[in-house]
Each structure stands twice: as structure tokens, then as C-alpha cells.
Automatic annotation (TrEMBL), chain A:
<feature type="transmembrane region" description="Helical">
    <location>
        <begin position="87"/>
        <end position="118"/>
    </location>
</feature>
<dbReference type="Pfam" id="PF00664">
    <property type="entry name" value="ABC_membrane"/>
</dbReference>
<feature type="domain" description="ABC transmembrane type-1">
    <location>
        <begin position="48"/>
        <end position="329"/>
    </location>
</feature>
<dbReference type="GO" id="GO:0016887">
    <property type="term" value="F:ATP hydrolysis activity"/>
</dbReference>
<dbReference type="Pfam" id="PF00005">
    <property type="entry name" value="ABC_tran"/>
</dbReference>
<dbReference type="InterPro" id="IPR027417">
    <property type="entry name" value="P-loop_NTPase"/>
</dbReference>
<dbReference type="InterPro" id="IPR003439">
    <property type="entry name" value="ABC_transporter-like_ATP-bd"/>
</dbReference>
<keyword id="KW-0067">ATP-binding</keyword>
<keyword id="KW-0472">Membrane</keyword>
<feature type="transmembrane region" description="Helical">
    <location>
        <begin position="300"/>
        <end position="321"/>
    </location>
</feature>
<feature type="transmembrane region" description="Helical">
    <location>
        <begin position="35"/>
        <end position="57"/>
    </location>
</feature>
<keyword id="KW-0812">Transmembrane</keyword>
<dbReference type="InterPro" id="IPR039421">
    <property type="entry name" value="Type_1_exporter"/>
</dbReference>
<dbReference type="InterPro" id="IPR011527">
    <property type="entry name" value="ABC1_TM_dom"/>
</dbReference>
<keyword id="KW-0547">Nucleotide-binding</keyword>
<dbReference type="GO" id="GO:0005524">
    <property type="term" value="F:ATP binding"/>
</dbReference>
<dbReference type="GO" id="GO:0015421">
    <property type="term" value="F:ABC-type oligopeptide transporter activity"/>
</dbReference>
Length: 638, 639
């Protein structure tokens, strides 16, 4: 039987994990309902066991009133001490069994909940690992994270309520049987009342959910406002604006309060309706019971049992109610999860992959750019987007030129309009996926040693060509982890990497040296420090082909000069491409290529190009008249 | 030159020997007798407890980051919040009391119904009593609605005040601390801690009041129904008290530890998703998946700890809360035999003990939740305990002359990064500061702009110490322009008027025009009211930078300190912005902490800072002629 944390190999198997086969290989993403069924099927033995244990846990409320009634009829009323003690002992035993199984059931409920919760988080992590840079192209990061952060909990809640619902259903039927066999009339009342009670509050659920949805969305806006204030706090305290943003926050906080209150009113109505209906039901039951006692069909002990059951029946009813609520919420969560889980990587390794040759130039058809083997080639362009697009192509990355499709359709829509909006989003998402697949299927247009990158395995491309671009990120951990994430460098190699990237001061600044902690995304380090650690990490990978995009844009001239010299030195004889316009780099280049309008229009050494190409001169030694011209371009983008 | 990597051999670790995320001792044994297993479980439980306590202690006394307040402060805060809402609070108690009380009348009436049935009363009297019960039930439903409504209004109101207070506090944090501290801890506090506090304020406070009230009223109702039946049952329930207390002492720490493991899971996953491209490029997928699994394994241990705590609690309360049924039966039989209690009283007593266990359970849960909420609240209130870093005086500067003399500054005690720097700015001049990273040039910029006060020496503007100026005045005298060009969530106007929040729209348009942004802002349908920032209309990096510059035009300080202002944006936008930048710099004194040499080239004077001292100071031509550090760099740049 599964335990938590569960072993998950869906979407991505770590080396050492066996490949996943069978129904667990991938979730059923056809509909939210099927998805939920799939998550439940992952652990049905656990849920079944929980249900089984739950039946014993429910023994006291199930059998208690009956025992009590017998004790009244056989012991108390006739004054039979031994009978009273006998039934008292049975009641004690039942209570103890209930307590013991209560603990067991709790243990299993935690287990099933956490299997679902941890399982979902693990699947999201594996989905991210499987999709790589393609995932943020299609889905906003926040939505990926919220599947792991909050939807996972809904799935856990569903497994719990499912087990409890089964338990309560059984208890309900057992009690119904006891009651029916005592009195047909009252038994029927009990059986009929439960569904009626669940149904009665149902119309109130929809408006409640809509309001809860609004409350959730306003609260998340509120959180992002607070995060935004913290992110810009230096500006707010440095330049001002505390009043404006303080009151913006307060206004949103009041909106969230109103939404919470109006949801709360519906919640209150639902509670009140629950109290009313179950109360009336109890009275009705007792009243009918007294009539039967008078007519002699029922003993007084039996009536007292009925009372106990009438009170108890509230719990199954509430549980069924809760089940309906949680199922709805889990379905909403399932829809969000499906939007992530149904995505597939666009790449498909060719049927007969060609190994990338060890020797040869790296060439891009679209621009005509060529990086010769073993040389340091620097790409210069007036438009940085061109060079970063080129770098993406060289590494076989899809450019981040798409707007991710959000699942969030806003708070105003409901009913058919909401469904239409959701369908539209699904279509948009599918279109993005198709676009990616089309690009991934076709010849890529970049060759290494004459072999198109699409003809080789993607893993092979990644191993051979390393592109370190502006989005390169540091991860939380020690400095040692940051420079040597694979744990395969010697200390000397790591030191060398730090020296080449001129990042020794980061080592010195962190208490604990190599074991010094780097915060998430390298927060706490300055921009320049971050950039140099990223560079050290890229250099230490020792890739055959290394592409560095603006590697020193946040570094001062002194340091840049040192880095350029050392990188040129350490990469001597290996294919290296750097995009920059800094002269401090340029005169270390074996070859400089000027890219304009997506064409390589000039190439040569820095000195030659300075002499021969006015375009080049204008880009490198910043031309004073560039202002007016480029400002127009910015306007076009706005 | 010192070798900065001198300690490298001591701090480098062989990671093959690293301990696993979860020690092997925490894995349950596969076989063994029942007693062996129980012993092993106890061992694991105490090990888990130790881990939880360590983490908890760490969260109370963070090594880095912002302080944490004590429990006293939390109580004080809560009392102040309640004091402001006395009326709603009283209403909440009264309405919930009424709801509980009406609910408690029902069993008594049902008991009476049974007594009358036994006594053989006429059907009509039974019917009348039944109708009365229905009336009471309707009243109970009505009170429940009103009580719940009041609770929501109360909880939501309490919550909004609390969170607005926190954000106000954050907006008053000392400038020097804000500039130096990492924002990560603060982000966690405004997201996770506000969330935890919300749950406890919004539900925990009203619910514990309601449950407590219900428990008290139920006990009273029980005693009123029959002392003989009530007292033994209550005594049995009281037996659970020591275990409940033990649980309540330990559990919150367990839950706080648990919460920390979840935020760890979340931040690791966030990094994996946001850094997807990096993960893919470096082939880190296996590592990231492994890191996520490790976080989950640690979290599972935290869950197992609290699960065992709960099981230990349940073992006691499940018995103690259910045993009264047996007690009532036996005592009832005896009392009935002796003629002290009626069947109706026994019935009502059973109904009461059944009804008592729910609120009791809830009360334990809510106190739990309140304690966890209190821990988060103490972290939030800790923000308010950061002492102010300056006491503004009343003296206003006499003229714009900025003079720094004998400046020394240390981030860590005994580690001065500046060693007695003297610098006098000429009004209207452009001074470039160049130097390698770590030389202290950024620190100098922060002292010159009044972000931090110097350890020794002074920075004055018009003969007044910068740190003695009120912030509102300081901002209009000198401003530090950093590489951060954060665009706030809000309107274009909100994003620009920061320094002078009462600026007119004309002033805003003037500023936009000056930096060359008027035409693209005009093209927004909502103009200045267009919502920008994360989640709204996206700006290009150049536009974001222009917005940042327009803010400064509005602030209109006579002196600007530019720190790497254009360094993090691409070279082309840097050039695009030159026009916008020039508009801003026009007529002001400018100190530029330069990464790019062309900035230095254009300056009136250049200060070369190395190892916390100004080693060269003069115009470009003077320094090139001098043949020192700057000259060498310039040659490399232009060759």
C-alpha cells in the first residue's frame, strides 16, 4: 500500500527510476472528472482501508443509541441492575473500539491526503522538468505554482472527504436498517430526510461559490499588491509615494473585506438553513415517535434511541453536503491542473538521430552567422533582441516571444460566458502548442559541423551547446552548489571558474566561503555579483560550444576588462560566442560579426571592422545622432 | 593583492559524503515485534520533535533579516484591535450566546416531551410542545444566521485593519535598512505570514469565542438539567485536561515547523519553474526534481510529528469525551432507581454530552490555530520594532552645496569599506565615480545621497547633515537613482507622482514629456489612469526606465546620484534613454557611479575609487595625462 511521500515517476523519471508504464504513466486529462478519478485510482487501497477503519470509528454513534435504548428498556425501567451493567459494559466496549479506530482512521486520512498533496506537487515539479523552457511560454508561472500550492490541497481534501463519505454512507444505511426494523414509518422518514436536507441548501451553494471565487481573486490581488510594495520598497522609501501606495493597498484591502463579508453572509445562510432543517427533522422524528409510544408500537427506550439517531443523522447529512462542496472545488482545481498536465513537450527525437560531430563550425542559416570551430566569435548588433534571438536559435530554444495563456477569466463572468471564455483559452493554448510543435518538427536551420540540430537528440544538443542568456538564474543553496551544481568539479576547477569570472569577492563576501548561503534567485547579491557567479557556473560546465549573451552588462569597466581577457584565455581553442558591444570584449575576439536586420552584414576583427564598416563604428562607438532615431523605434513598440 | 580564495580548501566540501535530507533513523523498521516497533516509533517521535523545535527556535530568532516580536506584543496588538470594535464584539458574543442557548433548550424540551409521553399526557399537549420546539429551532436558525454574519463582519474587519496596519508599518521602515536588507524575508512575511494571520484572525478569533461560549453554556445547561447526571460526566471530561494542555504546548511549534517546510517546498518549486530555461540549459532537471523530493521528504517528517501529537491527543479525548455516555447511563440508572432523575432528564443529559464533544473538539483546534496565527503575527509585528535610523531636525539647508568629509563606513563592525573620503561637489558639475566592484564606490554614493549616515565624518547639504533632514525634504534635495526601475501595480500617475503626491496632471504630463514618454502614454486609452505594473499593461524595459526618470523629474532634486542607472538595461535602451536622461540631468549636480567609460568621459570630473579611497580625481584629460589607473582603463576601452 502506498505511503507518503509517494514515489512519482509521472512525466519525468530521474535517472535510476524505472520508466513508468500502465495507467499511472500519465494522468487522464480528458475532463476534470476523469482526472479526479485518476488521482483517486492512484491510491484506492488506502482510501478503501480508511473507509473500512472509519466504519469501526463510527461504531459508537451507530450502535450507541440502540444500546442505550436497550439499557433503558431492559435495565433502567424494570430496575434490573445486572442488565443495566451488562449494557453499560457493551457501551464501554463500543466506546473503546471507536477511540482505537479513530486513531487508526486519522492516521490513514493523513496518509491519503498527503499522498494526493505531495503527489500533485511532485507531478508539477516533474512537469516543469519535462517541459523546460517551453512551460513559461505557455502558462503564467503563478498558475503553475498555484496548482502545486493550493490545488494540490483540494485533491487531498477530496480523498479525505471521499473516505469519510463512504464511512458515513455505511453508517447511514446501518442506522436506517436499525430504525426501519424498529419502526417502518420512522425509518422511512430518516431515509428520505437526509437527501432532502442536502438538496435544500444546494441552491445556496452556487451564489456562495461565486462570491468565494471573487473573494479569492481579490485576496490574491491584495497579496500581489503587498508583494509589489515590498519589491519596490527601496523606491517608495527613497523617492516617496508611501501615501499613494499605502492607500491603494488599503482600498484593495477594503474590497477584499467586502467580498469576504458578502461570501460570509451566504455561508451564514447555509449554516442557518442547516440548523433549521436538521432541527425540524429531529422534532418531527421525536413527535412521530411519541405518538407511536402512546399507541404502544414503540418502547420508551426505542424512542430515546431514535433521538440519538436523529442527532447522529446530522453528521452523515453534513458530510454528504461537504462532499458536494469539496467535489465542486476539486473539479475547479482539476481544470487548472489539467491545463498544466495536458501539455506535452513539442520536441520529438528523430527516429534515427544523428550524433552531433565533434568538429565543425556552428552556423545559422537565417542570419548567415557562422562561429568557427575553436574561435571566440563576438556578435554585435544595434538591436539586442536580434542577438538574443540568434543565441536562442544557436541553442535550439524557442524564443520567449509568446504571451502565456492564463486560466484566469476574471471575476465578472459566469455561466455560459464563463464557459465560452474558458473554451477560448483552451483554443489559444492548443494553438500555442501547435505552433511550438510545428517549429520543433521542422529543420531547425542551425548546423553544427553540417548537421542540423533537429537531426540530433535534444539531450545531445543541450550537452554540446550551452547558451547562458540574460534569464540565467541562480538557485538557493551554497556558493559551491551555485558554481558546481552537478557536484563534479574539483575544488581547483571551481576556484579557477570563480577567478575567470572575477567573482572571488562573492566568495569573500559570503560568510562561510563555499558553504555561504545564496538566497533564492541570488537575491541578496548585487546584480553584478549575480552575473559573475552565473558566468562562473557557465564556464565551469566546460561545454564544447559556449554562447554567452551580454555576460558582463551589470559589471563595471574594470572588472569587465579582466573578465574578457580571462574568458578569452580560458576558452582558447574552444568554440565560444559572446554577444556584446563593449570594446573591452571586442578586441579579444578572433572574429566579430555585425548583425543587422537579422543578417550578418559584416565580419572581421574589431580593428578591421572599425576601419571598414561605418555601420559597425556607429554601433560600437556610440553615435551621437542615435538618439532621435532609436527613440522612434521605442515609440513604435509602445 | 590578497588572495580572496585563501580559505577555499577549508570550506570546500566533498558532497558525496553529505547526509541525506532525512536521516535514516527516521525510517520505520521493516520488521520486529510490536514492542520493538512502539519503541522505535517513540524514538522517531522524539527525534522529529527535536528537529521541529530547532526549526521553530530558528524562526523566532532569525540570524538574518528582520526582527520578531514577542508574545506580549501580539496580545497587546490583539487587545487594541478588539478595543476599537467593542460594539461588534459585544454583539458577536450576545448573538452567538443566543444561538447556542436556543440550541441548548431543544434537548430539554425533547426530554420534557418524553416525560409527558411516559406520563401519558394527551396528544394535544404533546403537539403543543412539539410546535414549541419547532419555534425554538426557528429562533436558533435565525440567531445562527445573525451570529455567523456578525462573526464574518467582525473577522473581516479585524483582518483588514491588521493587514493595513502591517503594510503601513512596512511603508515606514527606515531607509537605511530597506536599502541594505534583502527583501526575501519581507516578501515571506507579507504573503505567508499575513495568510496565516488572516486565517486565525478571520476564523480563529470568532470561532474560539463561539466554541468557548458554547462549551460554557452547555455545561450550565447540563448542570441545570441534573446535577447528579452532570457532575460525574464533567469530571471524566476534565481528566483529559493534562493531555490537552501538553498537546497545546507542543502542537503550535509543530505546525509552525510544518508551515515552514511547505514554504520551502514552494520556494524550491518557484525557482524550478521560473528558472526553467536555466534548468534545461545546464541539465539540472534531475537535481531540481531531487531537491523538490527532498523538501517533500522533510515536510513528510514534520507532518508525521504533528500526526503523532494528534494521535496522542485523540487517544485521550476520544475516550474522555465519549465515556460520559456510559457514565450517564450508569448514574442515570441508579438515580432513576432512587427516584432522583426522570427518564426525560436522562434523555436530555445524553443529548447534552453528545452535543458537548463537538464544541470541545473545535475549541482545542481553534486554540491551536490561534497559537500558530500568533507566531505569524509576532513576525509581522517584528517589522514595527526596527528602530528608526534617523531623527529629523528642524533646520533646513541653506543652499545646494554638498560636502562630504572624512567619510568612513562599515557594514560589518571593524570592516570599514571607506577610509576617510573627502569630496566637495561643485554646484551643477558632473562627477563620475569609477572603480572596480567592491571598491566602495556604491557605498560612497549612498552616503552622498543620505541613504546611510557615515560612521565618522559628515555629509552636509547647505550646512545641514543629510541624515537630519526629514525624508520629504531630503528627497527633493538629493536623490539616488539605482538600477532598479520597478514599475508599481497602479496607474501611470501613481507611478510618477511618488515624491510629490499632490502633483497636478499637468506636472505629470510635463515630466512625461521631458523624458519623451508623452506620446506612448497618450496612446493608452485611459491615459494617466492606465493601470501598469505586474498583471497589467506591460511596459518595455525602455518605457519602465523612462517612468523611473519621470519620477525624478517630479521630485526635482538639485543633486542626483546615479548608481549603475543604465547598466542593467540593454545598450540600445541606454542610448535611447540618453535624451530622457539628459532632460533629467539638465541643470542639476550629478554624481554618476559609472560602469561604462563613456559616462566618465563626458563628466566634468572623475573620481577613481580603489579600496575605499579616492586615488585619482580630475577631468578626463587630466587623468589620461596622469597615466594612472584611469588612463590604463581608457586605453583598453579605446584600443
Amino acid at each position: 500500500m502506498r505511503d507518503f511521500p509517494p514515489v512519482i515517476t509521472t512525466f519525468y523519471a530521474r535517472s535510476g527510476d524505472g520508466p513508468t508504464t500502465g495507467p499511472l504513466a500519465a494522468p487522464d486529462t480528458r475532463t476534470p472528472f476523469r482526472f479526479l478519478l485518476w488521482t483517486l485510482r492512484l491510491q484506492w487501497p488506502v482510501i478503501l482501508t480508511t473507509t473500512f477503519l472509519g466504519m469501526f470509528w463510527q461504531l459508537p454513534p451507530m450502535a450507541g443509541p440502540w444500546i442505550f435504548g436497550r439499557a433503558v428498556d431492559e435495565g433502567i425501567v424494570p430496575g434490573d441492575v445486572s442488565k443495566t451493567l451488562q449494557w453499560g459494559a457493551v457501551l464501554l466496549a463500543v466506546t473503546m473500539v471507536g477511540a482505537l479506530f479513530g486513531i487508526l482512521m486519522h492516521t490513514f486520512i493523513v496518509r491519503t491526503w498527503l499522498i494526493a498533496l505531495y503527489g500533485t506537487i511532485k507531478m508539477v515539479t516533474r512537469k516543469a522538468a519535462q517541459m523546460g523552457h517551453v512551460l513559461p511560454r505557455r502558462t503564467p508561472t503563478g498558475e503553475v505554482l498555484s496548482v502545486a500550492g493550493s490545488d494540490s490541497d483540494e485533491f487531498g481534501a477530496l480523498t479525505e472527504i471521499l473516505a469519510r463519505t463512504w464511512t458515513q454512507l455505511v453508517a447511514y444505511l446501518v442506522v436506517a436498517f436499525i430504525v426501519l426494523s424498529t419502526s417502518l414509518e420512522l425509518g422511512v422518514l430518516l431515509l428520505v430526510a437526509a437527501p432532502v436536507l442536502v438538496g435544500a441548501a444546494y441552491p445556496l451553494l452556487k451564489p456562495l461559490h461565486r462570491r468565494q471565487e471573487i473573494e479569492r481573486s481579490r485576496n490574491s490581488d491584495l497579496t500581489s499588491l503587498a508583494t509589489d510594495i515590498v519589491a519596490g520598497l527601496r523606491i517608495l522609501r527613497g523617492i516617496g509615494g508611501e501615501r499613494t501606495f499605502g492607500s491603494n493597498y488599503a482600498a484593495q484591502s477594503q474590497l477584499a473585506r467586502q467580498a469576504g463579508q458578502s461570501a460570509g453572509i451566504w455561508q451564514a445562510a447555509i449554516e442557518a438553513v442547516g440548523v433549521l432543517f436538521s432541527g425540524v427533522f429531529v422534532v418531527l422524528l421525536v413527535w412521530l415517535g411519541t405518538r407511536q409510544v402512546i399507541s404502544g408500537d414503540l418502547t420508551i427506550g426505542q424512542l430515546i434511541s431514535f433521538l440519538g439517531y436523529a442527532l447522529f443523522m446530522i453528521y452523515p447529512i453534513q458530510t454528504f453536503f461537504e462532499f458536494a462542496q469539496k467535489l465542486t472545488r476539486a473539479s475547479v482545481s482539476a481544470r487548472k491542473a489539467i491545463a498544466i498536465f495536458e501539455q506535452r513537450p513539442p520536441w520529438q527525437d528523430p527516429a534515427q538521430p544523428v550524433g552531433l560531430p565533434v568538429h565543425g563550425d556552428l552556423a545559422d542559416e537565417q542570419t548567415g552567422f557562422v562561429a568557427h570551430e575553436g574561435q571566440l566569435t563576438i556578435v554585435v548588433s544595434a538591436v539586442p533582441e536580434d542577438t538574443s534571438a540568434l543565441a536562442d536559435r544557436l541553442g535550439r530554444y524557442l524564443s520567449p516571444d509568446t504571451e502565456p495563456v492564463s486560466q484566469d477569466i476574471g471575476e465578472g463572468l459566469k455561466g455560459r460566458a464563463a464557459r465560452r471564455a474558458r473554451e477560448q483559452r483552451a483554443i489559444d493554448r492548443a494553438r500555442l502548442a501547435e505552433l511550438d510543435e510545428e517549429r520543433a518538427r521542422a529543420a531547425w536551420g542551425v548546423t553544427l559541423g553540417g548537421v542540423d540540430l533537429a537531426a540530433a537528440r535534444l539531450a545531445d544538443v543541450r550537452r554540446r551547446i550551452l547558451v547562458s542568456d540574460a534569464t540565467s538564474q541562480l538557485f538557493a543553496g551554497t556558493l559551491q552548489d551555485a558554481v558546481d551544481p552537478h557536484a563534479r568539479l574539483t575544488r581547483e576547477e571551481a576556484e579557477e571558474a570563480l577567478r575567470v569570472a572575477n567573482a572571488e569577492d562573492v566568495y569573500d563576501a559570503l560568510p562561510g566561503g563555499w558553504q555561504g548561503r545564496i538566497d533564492e534567485r541570488g537575491r541578496g547579491l548585487s546584480g553584478g555579483q549575480r552575473q559573475r557567479v552565473v558566468l562562473a557556473r557557465a564556464l565551469a560546465q566546460d561545454a564544447d560550444v559556449l554562447v554567452l549573451v551580454e555576460p558582463t552588462s551589470a559589471v563595471d569597466a574594470h572588472t569587465e576588462a579582466r573578465i574578457a581577457e580571462r574568458v578569452a584565455d580560458v576558452r582558447r581553442g574552444r568554440t565560444t560566442v559572446v554577444t556584446t558591444v563593449s570594446p573591452l570584449w571586442l578586441h579579444h575576439a578572433d572574429r566579430v560579426v555585425l548583425v543587422q536586420d537579422n543578417r550578418a552584414i559584416a565580419e572581421g576583427t574589431h580593428e578591421d571592422l572599425l576601419l571598414d564598416s561605418p555601420d559597425y563604428r556607429r554601433v560600437v562607438t556610440r553615435a551621437m545622432d542615435a538618439n532621435a532615431e532609436t527613440r522612434e523605434e521605442v515609440d513604435d513598440r509602445g | 593583492m590578497v588572495d580572496l580564495l585563501a580559505t577555499s580548501p577549508d570550506t570546500w566540501r566533498d558532497r558525496a559524503t553529505e547526509p541525506p535530507a532525512v536521516p535514516h533513523e527516521l525510517e520505520p523498521p521493516r520488521e520486529g515485534s510490536f514492542t520493538d516497533r512502539v519503541t522505535a516509533l517513540r524514538r522517531r517521535h522524539s527525534l522529529r520533535e527535536r528537529r521541529a523545535l530547532e526549526n521553530y527556535a530558528q524562526s523566532r530568532k532569525p540570524e538574518r533579516g528582520w526582527p520578531v516580536a514577542d508574545n506580549q506584543a501580539v496580545l497587546h496588538f490583539l487587545r487594541a484591535l478588539l478595543r476599537d470594535r467593542k460594539r461588534t464584539f459585544v454583539l458577536l458574543v450576545v448573538l452567538n450566546g443566543m444561538a447556542a442557548a436556543t440550541g441548548l433548550v431543544v434537548p430539554r424540551l425533547l426530554g420534557a416531551l418524553i416525560n409527558r409521553t411516559v406520563a401519558g399526557d394527551a396528544a394535544s399537549s404533546l403537539n403543543a410542545l412539539a410546535v414549541l420546539v419547532v419555534v425554538v429551532v426557528v429562533a436558533q436558525a435565525g440567531f445562527t444566521f445573525l451570529a455567523q454574519r456578525t462573526s464574518t463582519v467582525f473577522g473581516q474587519d479585524l483582518l483588514s485593519s491588521a493587514r493595513e496596519y502591517i503594510v503601513r508599518t512596512i511603508l515606514q521602515l527606515p531607509l537605511g535598512r530597506v536599502e541594505s536588507a534583502s527583501s526575501g524575508d519581507l516578501v515571506t512575511r507579507v504573503t505567508r505570514d499575513v495568510g496565516t494571520m488572516s486565517r486565525s484572525v478571520q476564523y480563529g478569533v470568532p470561532m474560539s469565542i463561539i466554541s468557548g461560549l458554547t462549551v460554557v453554556l452547555s455545561i450550565i445547561a447540563m448542570l441545570l438539567n441534573s446535577l447528579v447526571l452532570a457532575v460525574p460526566s464533567l469530571m471524566v471530561i476534565a481528566l483529559a485536561y493534562p493531555q490537552v494542555r501538553r498537546y497545546l504546548r507542543k502542537a503550535p511549534k509543530g505546525y509552525i515547523n510544518e508551515g515552514a517546510t511547505y514554504s520551502r517546498i514552494n520556494s524550491t518549486l518557484t525557482e524550478t519553474v521560473e528558472g526553467a530555461r536555466t534548468v534545461e540549459a545546464l541539465g539540472l532537471a534531475d537535481r531540481r526534481v531531487g531537491a523538490g523530493d527532498d523538501d517533500i521528504a522533510v515536510s513528510a517528517q514534520a507532518e508525521r510529528y504533528t500526526m503523532t501529537l494528534r494521535n496522542l491527543l485523540f487517544a485521550v479525548i476520544d475516550v474522555a469525551f465519549n465515556l460520559p455516555r456510559v457514565v450517564t447511563l450508569l448514574v442515570g440508572a441508579w438515580g432513576y432507581h432512587e427516584g432522583w432523575v426522570s427518564l426525560g432528564q436522562i434523555t436530555a443529559a445524553v443529548l447534552y454530552v453528545e452535543a458537548l464533544s463537538g464544541p470541545l473538539d473545535r475549541l482545542v483546534g481553534e486554540v491551536d490555530r490561534l497559537q500558530v496565527g500568533a507566531a505569524s503575527t509576532s513576525r509581522l509585528l517584528g517589522i514595527a520594532q526596527v528602530p528608526p535610523d534617523r531623527t529629523p531636525g528642524t533646520q533646513l539647508p541653506d543652499g545646494p552645496d554638498l560636502v562630504g568629509s572624512d567619510l568612513r563606513f562599515a557594514y560589518r563592525e571593524g570592516h570599514d569599506v571607506l577610509h576617510g573620503v573627502d569630496l566637495t561637489l561643485d554646484t551643477g558639475e558632473r562627477l563620475a565615480i569609477v572603480g572596480p566592484s567592491g571598491s566602495g564606490k556604491s557605498t560612497l554614493g549612498r552616503l552622498l545621497s543620505g541613504i546611510n549616515g557615515p560612521r565618522t565624518g559628515s555629509v552636509t547639504i547647505g550646512d545641514v547633515e543629510l541624515v537630519e533632514l526629514p525624508l520629504e525634504t531630503l528627497r527633493t534635495e538629493v536623490a539616488l537613482v539605482t538600477q532598479e526601475h520597478h514599475v508599481f501595480k497602479g496607474s501611470v500617475r501613481d507611478n510618477i507622482i511618488l515624491a510629490r503626491e499632490d502633483s497636478s496632471d499637468e506636472a505629470v504630463w510635463d515630466a512625461l514629456r521631458a523624458v519623451g514618454s508623452d506620446d506612448w502614454v497618450e496612446r493608452f486609452p485611459a491615459g494617466l489612469d492606465t493601470q501598469i505594473g505586474s498583471g497589467n499593461t506591460q511596459l518595455t524595459p525602455a518605457q519602465a526606465q523612462q517612468i523611473a526618470l519621470a519620477r525624478l523629474i517630479i521630485a526635482d532634486p538639485h543633486t542626483l546620484v546615479l548608481d549603475e542607472a543604465t547598466s542593467l538595461i540593454d545598450p540600445r535602451t541606454a542610448r535611447t534613454l540618453e535624451g530622457s536622461m539628459n532632460a533629467l540631468l539638465e541643470g542639476r549636480t550629478v554624481v554618476a557611479i559609472a560602469h561604462r567609460l563613456h559616462t566618465a568621459h563626458d563628466a566634468d570630473r572623475i573620481a577613481v575609487v580603489i579600496d575605499g579611497r579616492i586615488v585619482e580625481l580630475g577631468s578626463h584629460h587630466e587623468l589620461v595625462a596622469q597615466g594612472g589607473e584611469y588612463a590604463a582603463l581608457w586605453r583598453a576601452w579605446t584600443s
